[in-house]
Every structure is written in C-alpha cells, then in structure tokens.
Write a structure and sequence with these properties.
Helix content is 18%, strand content 29%. By secondary structure, the chain is of the alpha+beta class. Helix 3 (201-212) runs parallel beside helix 5 (251-267) and helix 6 (332-344) packs parallel to helix 7. It is globular, with a radius of gyration of 24 Å.
Length: 511
C-alpha cells in the first residue's frame, strides 16, 4: 500500500467513526439529565478472590437503547472496603455498548477471601447506588453460610413485599431459581396464545427493565451477591429445548426467540458464564464453592430437556415415553458434569440449585398416579439415576433447593422412588413465589387429602415469600419466610416453620 492510499483509507475510516453511531471506536461520556442507573446495581457468582458486579445504563428504561443515544459509553467502577469509598482497592472503566443493551459486567479480580466490599459505578457526573459484595472463604475454611433463595416474581400478580423483608436480613448470598420475569402480561393466561407474548430482544429488555425498576428488588440485590439461574418464563412457559408451548411456533422460531431471551437475561444479571457462538446456546450451568463448607451446583433444567410426555400438565402416568431411559431433564453432558463433580468434591455439603420439584407428588391417589410431567416426576428414570448417584457419593449431606411451583414444600429424597423401601439420601426444600399466583393460602385441600399417599412430604404451604438457610459444618437449618398477602403493600413477615438437617444423617426434622 502506498502512502496516498494509506492516508485515504485513514480518512475514510475516521469519517465512518464519526458518522456511524455504535461503531466500536466511538466512546462518549454524555451528560445525563436523569439518573442513568435507574435499574440499580447487583453483584453475583462470588469466588474466594473475585466477584461479578453489574449495572445497566438506562436513563429512560423503556425508550430505544434505554434512552441512550446509540454510541458506546464509558462507565467507571470502584470497589472499596468502606461505604464512603475512602479506601478503594480496585477500580477501572468499562465500555457499555448498545449491542448489549448498555449492560455493564465487571469480573472484579484480586479481592481477599471471606471479606465484605462496597462497589459503585459512575458515568460522567452520574453516580450509582452503592451495593455490597462478599467473597467466598478460602477452600479450606468451613465458615458458616447464611443465604436465602427465591423464585417466581410476576409483576402483575402482586407486590414484591418479600424482597423488602429480605433486604433487612443478614445474608451472605441469595440464590434466584428462575422465573425472574414472565413472558406474558396480565392474569389471563389465554392472552399468551393471541400475540401478547414477548419475542424480540427489545421486548425482553423492556420486561426486565419493568421488573428491575422495583425498589424492593433493587434493595435485595444491593445487600449481597446473588447466584441466578433461569426457568421457563424467562423464555416461554413450560418450554423444553426448542419445543415451545405454542403449537404455531416452529423450532426455528423458538431458536430465535430463545436467543433473544437468553441475551436479555445475560444483559440483566450479574453472572459469570462462558462465551458462546450463539445466544440461543448460552451455557449457564456452573459451580460456586463456599470455602470447604458448601459446593453449589447451578443447574439448567430447561435448555437440554426432552419434550414432556403427553403434554406438560398434571396427569396420570405412565403415558407416552414417560418411562423411557433416554428421556432426560438435564441432558447427557450436564448430567455427567454434575455426577462427576459431586464424586470429586470434598466440600462438607453438596447443594443443587435448580428449578422444578425433584420429589414426586401423587395429586390424586384414587386415580392411580397423577403427577406433574413438567417436574422431575415426568422424567422418573433420570431422577432415580441422579438420586442413585447421590446415594453413592454424598448421602446425608446433599440438599436440593427448588422453585417454580409457587408453594413451599419440605421433602425427603430417596435413592429411588420406584420402590417405597429405598433409603432416604437427601433433602429437598422447595420455596414459594415472591408474587406469582397472588396472596395464596396455608395448605390447599387437595394437598391435605393426598398427604397419606406421599409419606416423603413433611410440610406444605402456599403463601408468598422466600426461604432462609443457615449452614454450618454440623447442621443445616431452614426458615420458611412468608407474607399473608401481596395484593397490597405492607404485609408483615412470618416464619411458619423451621427444619433441620444433621450432617451425615439422611432425612429432615422439625427444628
């Protein structure tokens, strides 16, 4: 290339940089008239020396680009040991891009293990709210863990009152087990089949913006790191792989919809996940170790599962391919990753953070076995295979935490449920919803009537709320937190029951 051609090309590229909004070379520091951090801040996926911190520039959350002008924008960040940021230990800058919804994901390195920090973001003169993060202890430490888990927050069906109470708890960690948003609006589920569902990345971004505008949710995110996974409503109700709920959606359409939904999910969560060629194939399974005390496996029970047998509702089984050994909920690769990981782990407790109830529930014993085929009960061979693996590697020290069904359950897990004489090997705590399904009730009559035929079920409740757990080297104590109503604000917090697992002793007891 001669000098004249070189200078000509440089001039042309410089013109493109000035003329094309969003080009990678264009980075601005705009002056904001309103708060660009209106969606709050969050931290997540802590390790002993690092933690993710998150925010999103959105001065007008429901406008195109969140109210940004389409050019890349520099965001500064700071992590300090004090709330006034007099002792800043890590700082840097991040370029927020329109292609990624102006989301900001910083994996902060070089932190000390087992320590609290404060963090914030700045864009020109605008400063975000301050959040707290805590790193995990060193691998050899058995330091106690206080954490909560929650799921299922439907904006239209109630206030996020539970988060107001969660934000006052002394917690090291929060696990969110899915249904962070809902893909349809309103109470009428039929609306979903008549074009009222969201399908594009901008649709999903706006839905996340709506939910993240809630002050109680922002407050709960700000108190400590979160571990977030998804369930079905982040994409489409009861979807399985590339099979959607709507019969008119092809696999190709579901692939595009899943890509949009997964991208928007990533843009709005403080998660550390690997890069992929396509958003539709985003891998979110991962591990979080809390010193030597707890090893947490975060699972994905939607992306890799076989289509549900005979539809996706509660029905009599067996039916269709219900008992097929190849019928999978986790997919072969994820199941191997989990089983191999549990076999290698030397942590005191094993924790499976996942979405759908693992224990069976026969809802109508007089009609044979009537169960939900969307849950693990729809994949009985895969469930018993996993429980058998737990029996061989970590009996009496494995706890499954679950969401999805808008109700609280306490379950024993046996090494298999095809025979009632199989030994108990683990415990499952199922948490209710934050707001989905409205105010709820104590215990529905259908559950009360079915209890004698479900002896592994110890307690059930259908109020709204969350679950708090205290984990020590010798025991695990679970407090169920509920509120009496979400149809109006101001509900008080109750603790209707507490349960305890003793390390090395399979089964659960009232605390």
């Amino acid at each position: 290339m001669d000098r004249r051609s070189f200078l000509s090309d440089i001039s042309r590229y410089a013109f493109l940089c000035a003329a094309v909004p969003g080009d990678w070379r264009v980075v601005r520091r705009p002056i904001f008239q309103v708060d660009p951090f209106a969606l709050g801040v969050a931290s997540g996926d802590p390790s002993s020396d690092a933690c993710m911190i998150w925010t999103r520039l959105a001065p007008e959350p429901f406008a195109p680009f969140g109210g940004m002008d389409g050019t890349r924008t520099s965001v500064r960040w700071e992590v300090a040991t004090d709330e006034t940021f007099q002792r800043v230990v890590r700082q840097g800058s991040y370029v927020a891009a329109p292609e990624l919804g102006y989301s900001v994901h910083v994996d902060v390195p070089g932190l000390e293990p087992g320590r609290w920090y404060h963090y914030r973001f700045m864009a020109n003169d605008a400063v975000s709210a301050v959040g707290r993060l805590r790193t995990a202890p060193d691998r050899g430490q058995n330091e106690d863990l206080n954490f909560a888990f929650a799921s299922c927050q439907n904006w239209e069906q109630g206030h996020f009152t539970a988060y107001e109470h969660m934000a006052t708890e002394d917690l090291d960690l929060v696990a969110h087990l899915g249904d962070y948003i809902y893909e349809y609006a309103g109470r009428d589920r039929v609306r979903r089949h008549h074009g009222f569902e969201i399908v594009t990345v901008d649709d999903y971004r706006n839905r996340y913006a709506q939910y993240k505008s809630d002050p109680a949710l922002q407050a709960a995110h700000a108190i400590c790191p979160w571990i977030v996974t998804w369930d079905d409503h982040e994409v489409d109700n009861n979807y399985a792989g590339l099979v959607g709920e709507n019969v008119f959606e092809s696999e190709e359409q579901m692939y595009l919809r899943r890509a949009a939904a997964y991208q928007a999910w990533w843009e709005h969560q403080p998660v550390r996940v690997p890069r992929v060629r396509s958003w539709a194939d985003l891998t979110i399974r991962r591990e979080v170790e809390w010193g030597g005390l707890a090893h947490i496996w975060v699972l994905d029970t939607r992306q890799y599962r076989s289509d549900q047998s005979c539809g996706d509702r509660t029905q009599a089984v067996p039916c269709g391919d219900w008992g097929d050994p190849s019928h999978t909920l986790l997919g072969d690769a994820q199941e191997r990753w989990l089983v191999d990981g549990m076999a290698r782990s030397r942590s005191r407790w094993h924790v499976l953070a996942q979405q759908v109830m693992m224990a069976p529930f026969d809802a109508d014993p007089e009609q044979g076995v009537v169960t939900s085929v969307d849950q693990w009960s729809g994949y009985p061979v895969a469930r018993d295979r996993l429980l058998s693996a737990i029996a061989g590697t970590a009996p009496g020290r494995t706890v499954v935490i679950t969401g999805d069904i808008h109700s609280n359950w306490v379950n024993d897990l046996r090494s298999g449920f095809q025979r009632p004489d199989r030994p108990v090997v683990a415990t499952e705590f199922v948490g209710t919803s934050i707001s989905s399904a409205g105010d709820g009730q104590e215990q529905p009559e259908r559950v009360t009537l079915a209890l004698p035929d479900n002896p592994h079920l110890h307690w059930q409740n259908s109020r709204r709320g969350y679950v708090r757990c205290r984990v020590t080297p010798t025991d695990w104590t679970t407090h169920y937190r509920t509120v009496d109503y979400v149809s109006r604000p101001g509900a008080a917090l109750n603790t209707p029951t507490m349960w305890r697992c003793e390390y090395g002793r399979p089964g659960v007891q009232r605390a």
